[in-house]
Design goal:
single chain, 349 residues, alpha/beta, 6-stranded mixed sheet, 5-stranded mixed sheet, 14 helices
Length: 349
């Protein structure tokens, strides 16, 4: 796969995993922050669609948590034709919220990427089937038709992981590239199952009145890392205090949202103007309710500390399915050095 293909795939995959659909952008593409770059200025990149799933960044910005941590933030949504890591590598962004698996694939191309903090503590992927389906376990996917957007990105990697976890081979199932039509395809019986995200696809299907069941792709079945706080090793090493500030303020906002979800709605509404509509607001609240547990994880508290063993397992898995184009050292693409937590030292050992 060429680098241009990966860049294109990463922006598509990111919009699937971190956004619901086209929304009207509220503030300008680069809100808040100084007009000229200074030592404390940090540009935080998000995918091009404003969404409640980015609420920790919006909240940390609007409530001054980034300022309190010592940095001046600029929140930047990508253009619709911009690659996920393009601005980061060009120095137009300092950090970006992106999935760990996509970062690993990009790193295999020689891109200078490192994850400095956990964004989703729990993997959000799931196999979604009609409630009446005979599929009750991953092993039951044998002989079934699985719909995914395409053979690239997080959904594809999750599908291959689900197949492996079910004790199956790819040849035991039919993988159908259906674009972003999972809801319609499943409702119409065109596929037996789809692979999506519990805080996005599953929520939207339930809101649409489709009776579904989910088979979660948890850490035991899926050695993949979801949304993370990604930067370049060069930037992190040159700006360690700023890197720590991004991680600490973003995770502080996650915990603030868990304590009072309304702060997420209020901050997101400045970006996503569709939240003035009652239907869109109800959908955002539903997505938020499904997303908070992903931020907090099993400990019910976000601290940004990453599971290094999962990163290592993910690199091994991605290597085994042939999507890495070069050797990737997992210790080079993830670091807990920038997570401000008493647990950091033990997590790195």
């Amino acid at each position: 796969m060429k680098l241009s293909t990966i860049v294109r795939a990463t922006v598509i995959a990111a919009s699937a995993s971190l956004a619901l659909g086209a929304c009207t952008v509220g503030p300008s593409a680069t809100q808040s922050g100084a007009s000229s770059r200074g030592a404390s200025d940090v540009t935080i990149g998000l995918t091009y669609i404003p969404n409640i799933q980015f609420a920790p960044v919006y909240v940390a910005d609007s409530q001054g948590l980034y300022n309190d941590a010592g940095i001046t933030p600029t929140v930047r949504h990508h253009g619709s034709d911009e690659g996920l890591f393009t601005a980061l590598l060009a120095g137009q962004e300092d950090v970006v919220i992106a999935s760990g698996d996509e970062a690993a694939v990009a790193a295999s191309q020689g891109l200078d990427l490192v994850s400095i903090g956990q964004y989703y503590a729990t993997y959000p992927g799931s196999v979604i089937v009609p409630a009446s389906s005979s599929i009750t376990s991953l092993a039951d996917l044998a002989g079934k038709n699985i719909g995914i957007p395409g053979e690239y990105g997080s959904s594809y990697y999750a599908t291959l992981a689900a197949i492996k976890a079910g004790g199956l081979q790819a040849s035991d199932v039919t993988i159908s590239s259906i674009g972003y039509t999972q809801q319609a395809a499943l409702a119409a019986g065109q596929v037996d199952a789809v692979v999506g995200f519990t805080n996005n696809d599953a929520v939207q299907m339930k809101l649409a009145g489709i009776d579904i069941r989910e088979i979660p792709l948890d850490g035991a079945s899926t050695p993949l890392v979801a949304a993370s706080i990604i930067t370049t090793r060069e930037w992190a090493q040159a700006h360690p205090d700023a890197a720590r500030a991004v991680v600490s303020a973003t995770t502080e906002a996650m915990n603030a949202i868990a304590a009072d979800p309304q702060v997420a709605i209020d901050a997101t509404a400045k970006w996503d103007t569709t939240l003035s509509d009652e239907t869109s607001l109800a959908a955002a609240n539903a997505v938020l309710a499904a997303t908070v547990p992903l931020w907090l994880g099993d400990d019910a508290h976000a601290d940004g500390v990453q599971d290094l063993a999962t990163w290592s397992s993910m690199v091994s898995f991605l290597t085994s399915i042939g999507v890495l184009e070069g050797e990737v050292d997992p210790t080079a693409i993830v670091s807990n050095e920038y997570a401000n937590s008493a647990e950091t030292a033990s997590s790195q050992s």
